[in-house]
């Protein structure tokens, strides 16, 4: 799906408290850590740039990712790193909730949201979308307090939106979802949910 031009420029707001030590300020936010599917020692890394509300991304997750896992990820040839490119506000809220999950439930939550995308993203109103999204997060193990706190976290939201802004800039220049970048080379990309095209790229790299 081609990304829409953002009407507002979002920035990552960093709040520095008086008296905070440099070590405390330098501590990374675990919610922005990379989540790896597969063995990070595999020879091929695939960075997936996708939106949780994108139907094409859901089609890849539901229909093609199982093939990628069986052919390459489970065999230690490929590992996958997911990046949020939320094309609508509800996709940003969905991304926030995945970041608030324990690390071992991050990918299962993504899988659930894609599988049930039509249920929550398909609601006619934003309120209905958000209510259904909260319900899925609750089913995944978050309490009501955790869900509300997560969705109210402006630092988390700003960080996700900043990642989207950064991904749109060179050298990545992400303009479509899903987009797959292989082995960190922006020139070696696939901008489709077609597994055969991705497979051809992987096989070519494995032969080198």
Q: Pairing-aware structural class of the strands and helices?
A: alpha+beta
Q: Let me know the average pLDDT.
A: 89
Number of helices: 9
Number of beta strands: 5
Q: Please report which band the strand proportion falls in: under 5%, 5-15%, 15-25%, 25-35%, 35-45% or over 45%.
A: 5-15%
- Contiguous low-pLDDT stretches (5 residues minimum) are 4-25
Query: Domains counted in the coordinates: how many?
Result: 1
Which keywords apply here?
alpha+beta; five-stranded mixed β-sheet; single chain; globular; Glutaredoxin
Structure commentary:
Helix 3 packs parallel to helix 6. The chain has a single domain, classed as Glutaredoxin, CATH 3.40.30. The chain contains nine helices and five strands. With 208 residues, the chain is of the alpha+beta class.
Briefly, what is this?
This protein is an alpha+beta fold and 208 residues long.
Secondary-structure topology with pairs:
Layout: H1 22-26, E1 36-37, E2 44-50, H2 55-73, E3 78-84, H3 89-99, H4 106-115, H5 117-120, H6 126-139, H7 144-151, H8 154-168, E4 179-182, E5 185-190, H9 195-206
Helix pairs in contact: 3-6, 3-8
